[in-house]
Amino acid sequence: MTSDRDAKSTSRSSYHHGDLRQAVLAAALDVIAAEGPGGLSLRDLARRAGVSHAAPAHHFKDRPGLLTAIAAEGYGLLADTLEDASALRERGVRYVRFAVTHPAHFQVMFRPELLRADDPDLLAAKERASAALRTGVADLPDVPDARQAGIAAWSLAHGFATLLLTHNVTAAVGDRDPEEYFRSLAGLLFASQLPSPEGE
Amino acid sequence: MTSDRDAKSTSRSSYHHGDLRQAVLAAALDVIAAEGPGGLSLRDLARRAGVSHAAPAHHFKDRPGLLTAIAAEGYGLLADTLEDASALRERGVRYVRFAVTHPAHFQVMFRPELLRADDPDLLAAKERASAALRTGVADLPDVPDARQAGIAAWSLAHGFATLLLTHNVTAAVGDRDPEEYFRSLAGLLFASQLPSPEGE
DNA sequence: CCCTGAACTTGACACTGACAAGATTGCTCC
DNA sequence: GGAGCAATCTTGTCAGTGTCAAGTTCAGGG
Predict the structure, then answer these.
(1) Rounded alpha-carbon distances, angstroms, from residue A99 to A174, A184, B54, B77
(2) Residue ranges of chain B with per-residue pLDDT less than 50
């Protein structure tokens, strides 16, 4: 990242930054992961990128604009993560993995009051993730209401992920892998319906 | 509230407000429920209470102080709600009810980066709620790891509550009572262990 | 070569949280 | 009943923030 920047990249001598949008996004994710969205300062992000205080606004318009871009990116990444997982339980595990590996995205995605709800990119990405989340819920045996079963699975995964990120279950999980821990949790849901505890 | 205020209450003619702490807390809960903790402005709260801009600081020190007080109150209320519920599933229902009836408290309680984690009142209230949450998990039949079962139940309730407050399951729940909806969700957890779907 | 639009800068305004120092008040104790 | 004292609230100020408006630099195509 420090090699080929002579032409038009992150060198601060050039008037144009070259890749400011990405730089601001990356810095924003760092800050959010460390201090939450409340700790975000557009001026601070500009400073980190070595750029004037109003430069980020040209790419994201304003604060909601930046956070909406992050949320949309997050839903896209989540959809990517979920799409090639066959079994329902495995998708739950990947949901938890996404929250752990992309905590900043995850937080912002579920703070609607910070986002521009009608943003087309956001809506599209959210719909893609939502579709990936829904697939394969109907083929569970002995589950009367498929939609309700999907909500149950989502609640379990989302709740565990949230409690994990808010340091509310760190003691219980200990030094075990959170994904593995969730895998056993998921065994308690639909316990009677699943063929066997290992049935993946 | 507008009757007996001549002596020393909310009348703006008196130098002392009389009950500023409660007034600020109430106003803060309104704002947080509507716009989240990020929309909070101490100066705005002071304005609503008809008081100078620095008055709230005397009661809560600073922003984290106010939010920590709210979180502590929330954990207390949650403990009250949970303590007189016998069955595990009923405690889950009450957890959801608490989130719906006290959305501002609920949000703040699970945003550790906004709180003063070492506040004694907060720690005490949290411990009380935590104890109320744990009781009776061990007496589930056929559940090998009680702690893990507790985490699963908490995850399910917390996830559903969170998704509810972030408007992510409003379409699925429809005009049904969220508590009733959760009651059926809870039937899917420990489905094989529970004696019967209605076994309360 | 110019010119047009994108990327960025500069400057300003209203607002915020926090702090310090002073004013007012109710309570207690003599 | 009056003096002092601590709690409560005010006033003034400071650095920092988001957002807008207007100007500057720059790259690429006619």
Answers:
(1) 17, 18, 39, 29
(2) 1-12, 193-200
Strand C lies under 7 A from the Cβ of residue B14: yes
Contacts of A114 in chain B (CB under 8 A): 36, 38
What's the confidence (pLDDT) of residue A137? 81
Distance from CA(B96) to C1'(C16), angstroms, rounded? 35
B13/B62 Cα distance (integer angstroms): 26
- A1-60 CATH pick, 1.10.10, 3.30.160, 2.60.40, 1.20.1050: 1.10.10
Is the C-beta atom of B41 closer than 7 angstroms to strand C? Answer: yes
CB count in 10 Å sphere of residue A91? 24
Residues 6+ apart with CB under 8 A from B79: B125, B128, B129, B131, B132
8-state DSSP, A38:
G
How many C-beta atoms surround the C-beta of residue A124 within 10 A? 13
Q: Work out the number of other CB atoms within 10 angstroms of the CB of residue B198.
A: 8
C-alpha A50/C-alpha B90 separation (Å) is 55
Name the band, by pLDDT with cuts 50, 70 and 90, for residue A105: very high
Of A113, A188, A191, the CB nearest to B35: A113
Nearest CA in chain A to B159: A159
Q: Domain boundaries in chain A?
A: 1-60, 63-188
